[in-house]
Amino acid sequence: MLIRSKIKKIIVISVIILAVIVAAFLIFFFVPWPFAKTDGKLISQTVASSAPESMWGVDFSQSQAEYLKLDWKEAYSAIIGDLGAKSIKLHTNWDWVEGKKDEFFFNDIDWQVKQAEDNNVKLIYVVGMKTGRWPECHPPDWAQSMSKADEQAAILKYVTTVVERYKSSKAVSYWQVENEPLFKFGKCPSWYYANDSFLKQEVALVKSLDPSRQVIISDSGEQSTWMNAAKIADIVGITMYRNAWTHVTDTFGFEAYSFLNPVTYMRKAELIQKLYGKKVICIELQAEPWAGEPLMNAPLAEQLKSMNGAMFKEDVAFARASGLDKFYFWGVEWWYWMATKQNHPEIWNEAKSLFHNDSI
Fold this sequence. Notes:
single chain, alpha/beta, TIM Barrel, two-stranded antiparallel ribbon, 14 helices, 12 strands, globular
C-alpha cells in the first residue's frame, strides 16, 4: 500500500509539473493577441504602439508576372516608380537562366538589377534551385535526369556564375541561398531534403565568392522552430501566412485561418536571437490569395475570400505587432494585375500609401 501511495503521489506531481510546463509554453508563445477585431478591422491596443518602425519590401518574380500575362518590365517599373518599393526580394529561376547547359541568359535579370541600381533599390537575390513560386524547385530539363552528384555540381556552377556576375552590384544587399530549403514543400529531387549538407556547401561557396554580404536562409514561419535555419544562416528569413487552402484530396480541401498570433513570432525571434545571435526578418508576408486551384483558374470572388483590401490592412497591423522590423510582401504581381486588369486597385493603393508614408 505504501508503495502504491508513493506511485500515486509521483504521478500527481508529474502531471502538475507537466501542466505547469505546458501552461508556461502557451503563455510564452500564444499569449492572446492584444487586438480587437471589429467589422474586419483591427484596433491596436498595446503591442503595435511599442513595435519598431517597419521596413516594407516586396517579393518579385518575373515568371509570376508572366503567368498573370503582365508586361513584367512595366510591372517591375511600376513597383519601383509608382508603388515606391525600395526593397525587393528578387526570385530568379535556374531553368530560365540556364535553359541549355552552360548557356546563361542574364538579359532580363541584368535589366532588373540595373533598374534597382538606378533607383536606389536594395535587393535580396535568391539563388539556387529552389527559389520560390510553384513548383518551388526549378531545375532545367537537361539537369533532371542527372545523377545526384552531377546535378549538385551543376547547381554549384550556376550559383558561382550568378554570384560572380552580381557581387559587384551596389543594389544587391543580401544573398538568399535557396528558398525554404529545410521545409518540405514543392516538387524537388528526392535527394533535396535528405539532409542539410548540400545547403551548407552552397552557403560556404557563396561566402567564399562574396565574403562582404550576409546570407539569408528562409524557413516556414508557421511550421518550423527556425533553429535549423539559424544554425546555417547569418539572417533567418521567415514567412507569415494567415490564410491558406488546406489540401485534403485532389477535389476536396478547406480554407484554414492560422491560429497563431503576433506574439508567437515575437517570442520565436527572441529565442533565435538569444540562442544563436541571429536576426529574424519576414521575407514573405502574405498579401496574395491562396486558393484551392491555380490562381488564374480561381474565380475572382474566390480569390478575394483569402485576400482583399480589409485583410491586407489586417496583415499589416498583424505584422507590426510581431515586433519584427523588416517585411517583404508576397503578391505584388497580383496587386498590379488586380489594379490594371481587374479594376481592383484597393491593395495597390493601400500599399502605395504605406510605402510612401511609412518610415523605411
